[in-house]
Prior knowledge:
By secondary structure, the chain is mainly α.
Amino acid sequence: MSVTSARADMRPSRWRAGLGRLTAGAALLTAVALLPWLSGNDPALTVLRARSADQDPTPTQLAAVREQLGLDEGPLAHLAHWLGGLTQGDAGTSWVSGEPVLPQVTSAFAVSFTLMLGALAVTIAVAALVTARTLYMGSRHRLPGGTGATGAAVLAALPKFLLASILATVFGVWLGWFPSSGWEGPSSMMLPALALGVPSGAMLGGLLDQSLPAAFHEPWARTWRAYGFAPGHITRHALRRTLAGVLPQLLPTVVALVGGAVAVEKIFNIPGLGRLALDAAIAQDFPPLQTTTLALVVLGIAAGLLIQALRRALLGPALRDGALPALHIPAHRSGRSTRWVAALCAVVLLTVIVAGLLRDPLQVDTAARLLPPSTAHPLGTDSLGRDLLARLGHGAMRTVGVALAVTSVCTVTGLLLGMAAQVGAGLTEVVSTLPAVLAALLTTAVTGPSAWSAACAVCLVGWTPYAAQAAALFEQERASSHMLASVSFGADRAYLIRHHLLPAVLSPVLRNALLRLPTTVLVLASLGFLGLGEQPPTAEWGRLLSENQPYVELAPWTVIGPAGVLALLSVLAVSSTALAPTRSRRRRAAKR
């Protein structure tokens, strides 16, 4: 392999990426078109019930609906007819309401896009707060061994639908500062934007906070400090160096703020795109569902192209010329406080689990409904009088086990597709537009609602953050000078992957996976909240959050316990990444 061919490999073929986008988009639209038939239910029956709530329709009524909608022609004929109408600016009419689809989707998209901009502003502000300490200390060469990732982990573990309920109760109902329901103007955007933006900002800020120390310890930073450059100047260039690796995480975040905020939209009664897609999918209303999916696909592709252009602008000619220095986290020893935090979280979690396993999670006592914490019930009881400590303990293995399995599958899939950048670029952009709710509808249509159908749904879409991150890091590593030096000495592709690419990419992706582990639990909880995941009476942490969410004002202890163990799990995961040996630490240990 020559240096010239290596540089050519750095640039994924545009036509292959475009073909991947087209293929993935067509497959997604076809799968959505098949949704009514995959479920095994008669689409005419579902549409008729959605129209008139008739619980016992006659065969004559069903035949009339089939003839009116042309259901006997099958889903592919409907898909072709819908695509033909799009070329003339006609997205069809709703099967349920009979109204034109395009105005509905346009209005819902405008609401969701506005909400996305507000949530994105909150995301950037929270990420800036999370990284402020590292930026200040790093630019002055006073950065300690650890970073302030614990606070980011706690914020990232906040369930968005639970945070939305708390914000609506406190600031909407109690204080009356903002509307608690509806979409009436800018004031209606504040609370849902906070509910969506705070966890997302903590997630992105945590990833950026983990990457910044490597930039501040690069040779150029030491040289600039020695020559007396202002700390603000060094900070800007360190951000420019590290943002390129974190920017791809914005793609699934942006799309999730538009199409994946269904639970938040339901709580605040917001007529957004995600809620429109969910309602259309439940009613098997094909035209608005297809149009909504197409809008999300177009948005995802546009966001992906924009983020890719921003990355290339940040990295500059060094990416093209193969002159990027490799980013490696400095070989600091983990602080004693980090070890204590990790040990404390592990002990508390084990104590809660063991104590809960000794109790009966299914015992119902209607005389003990919504009791506060006491000696008999250390974490209180739920709306049926069941002991919350028992339910937390018995749900631990199922919750953590499913989340670990889903995260592992998503991480491996993301790494493999990230390595195949020419094929995976377009696929990642399109699949990241598919909300987990819609993926869950596709899987539950075949398997029915269950924990494993929800897990499969998350696996279908959950690999995109890892693929986007891996592709960006692979591209940067291929453009590094030591990579080209290895090529010039005759290293083959297998050697480069084993000794350069995987060691540089694996650690950041694994840290991302551990940071997102509680988020995976929350996504599964959101599906349960919408009736698409774990079904009662299973004692699963996300299920506990969703079923106790209506009582957050009357009995806040019913959600404090599940939210607390999720926060502990998140802090434990982040602390474990700080204690795990990085690439530079392993090299230093090897030299010794």
